[in-house]
Structures
1.
Amino acid sequence: MQRFFFKCTDCKSYFRSVNKTISCPRCGGHLLTSYNHEVLHSSAKRLMSKPIGRGIWRYLDFLPVYDASRIVSLGEGDTFLHRCSRLAEAFNMKEIYIKDETTNATGSFMDRGTSVAVTHSVEVNAHSVCGAATGNFGASLAAYAAKAGLDCTIFIPRYIDLGKLYQMIAYGAEVELAENYEDAAKKAYGLSDHTHLTSTFDPFFLEGEKTTGYEICEQLGWKTPDRIVVPMGDGSHISMIWKGLKEFASVGLLSSINVKMTGVQLEGYAPIATVLSAKGNAPLTEPERAFAGDIAIAKPALASSAVQAVKESCGEAVTVSDKEIFEAMELLAKTEGIFAEPAAASTVAGVKKLRDSGRISRDESTVCVITGSGLKDPVTARKMVRKNRLGNMVRRVEDRSTTPLLGSTKAKILSTCSEQESYGYNIWKTLEEHFSLSVKIPTVYQHLAELEAMGLVERIGAQQVMGKPARYYYRLTQRGEKVLETLGPSS
Ligand SMILES: [Zn+2]
């Protein structure tokens, strides 16, 4: 008996298998996995009595995998569900939980989906994978491709969080810049003839995403909270959590699913929230922004599924501003010890907004899904700590970590010029007499030229000595003084 098959969300066609295609071969719509109900029932019994595997693979029977011996795993899933008493106090709520996805292998919830997607790539005997990514998916795909020994090419938009880019490169992926996400997706598709195309909306990836919902229920003692709050980028995570809950209910693992699915988007970039509020059409242009870029998506692939999840569950969508997200990041880190990236912290900002306006009651047990780690976006992380009272100390440490690039000879030249304005020959003599450093005179001039180019010293005039080339005097610039200060007395 076939355990699972695929159904198009648009034309409703069924397919027994999909190999290289990630969308409906008839109409191009999105494919979702459906399971044979009888098989799912017996799987539910097994899950309660004797589950196999760990993390998301605990739910192996509920995932579209043909051969369990080929699973590609980095230990994804089984993330903590924290009961957050200090955050609850701040929001005057009884129960608020954080589903902390920052502890996945690459620091984001994407690993749940990528593990299933790359397992499928291995099952179809692919030698390489490719994909388009706004950030976290690229980091995750690169890591799982590395684990599976597959070549990996990722197309990214110009605006992307640096930490995610560092990850992709560290995991050995080939990374190519595209104009924007739409262009990246086109370029990835262009490679799909000879490379296995993976995306955040292929049916295998999507199935992995639903395990966030499975785990929340199981961690709460096989029941749903009153509300689950999820960031909405392409709309896939919220849709799939809802799909997972319905599956659990259909096989009796949940007696009811009274949960309001609540999606968070950014003010001004909220196509799904706009559809739900019936205020008009979604914006068609892709925003060029890095801050919370993973959820600033102009044309969300699973918008209609996300709308359906919110409507069916009597939930809602909420939009938050950059400032509200920033404040939520700080609050979450300081009250609960969880450092979230902006897109992730949007859920906490969303709860605050709904609570302030009375749309969430004090008694509603609420789960915020924190989808990714704060260090993935070092630019925002730096902004956050620099405005702290310890900001000056941070600046000094940052300077210190860049100054070793100067090298010790340049540091000594700076030190010499700081005593008094000096010229090449004199500096050369000082290096030898005070620092016992023997270098050739042209080397000193080369260093001076480089220090000048770096803006650390400046020429303040030439002195003409009879019959000799002009003698140039150098002194430290303000920046040079600062750098010298950070180098400390050893220079
Ligand atoms: Zn179709």
2.
Amino acid sequence: MVENSQQLAVVTGANRGLGLETCRQLAQRGLRVMLTSRDEAEGQAAMNRLRGQGFAVRYHSLDVTDPASVAALADTLRREGGRIDALVNNAGVALEGFDAGVARRTLSVNFFGVMAVTDRLLPLLAPHGRIVMVSSAMGQMDGLPPALCDQFLNPVLTRNDLVDLLNRFVRDVEAGRHLERGWPANAYRISKVGLNAFTRILAQELAASAVRVNAVSPGWVRTAMGGPGATRTIEEGAQGIVWAALVGPDGPTGGFFRDGQPIPW
Ligand SMILES: NC(=O)c1ccc[n+]([C@@H]2O[C@H](COP(=O)([O-])OP(=O)(O)OC[C@H]3O[C@@H](n4cnc5c(N)ncnc54)[C@H](OP(=O)(O)O)[C@@H]3O)[C@@H](O)[C@H]2O)c1
């Protein structure tokens, strides 16, 4: 049994909100934490706040949409001989408005960014490593047209199919034909539907290993994104993320959870 204190967690988008609180809770459990953010000054300040509370936290910059930035994090970890025990893909955006630009930018962070970070860090993952996709109830298929559900939930959907599907969404928005083609006018929703599909595909790809890959809905949380009217505290929202980041080798994989309980896709 590996001690928590020897374990390393990497958390994306962790200068504030759920990412920062996830770092705090993981450090509280004794893990060494690599806090990452795209804004270096904000990330360093967040790290210093956690260090001031006595937690073992380090910092590395990471813009999940920038391949060079993703590669730099991987290189640093590789040089250190680092082995990642938990990767928390938390960085996300919920942009105002809806057009092709919003759709493209939303997918670039919430879907393609997660895919790029995960693929790049996968070789550094411990044999019993955990990958957590911070998703949303908005990623649930409930209420979406059946034809769209069939495509995303198709059990033989491949990564390439999924990428094609999401690129088609952007093209359909660009052409102003998304509604007639059965898409909702909501880029955030499709980004999380796509993230959930990626969770299932990645879990299948890694089925022969002990790596656990799960998606988590934190609920509606009072962060900058969730707003002051949200029903849950940041501490409550982060608990389910931390649970998935700590599941054991016999724990679930390829599932969708809220507060450690399975929820429908
Ligand atoms: N709050 C909710 O009610 C709720 C509900 C369901 C799901 N979620 C999910 O929970 C996750 C965390 O959200 P939150 O509520 O904590 O929101 P938040 O306070 O807005 O935090 C989002 C974080 O993502 C970072 N980020 C955005 N683009 C990035 C990029 N390209 N590279 C790296 N980091 C990037 C932001 O960094 P900057 O400070 O630089 O912008 C920020 O640190 C998201 O995936 C969100 O979709 C939230």
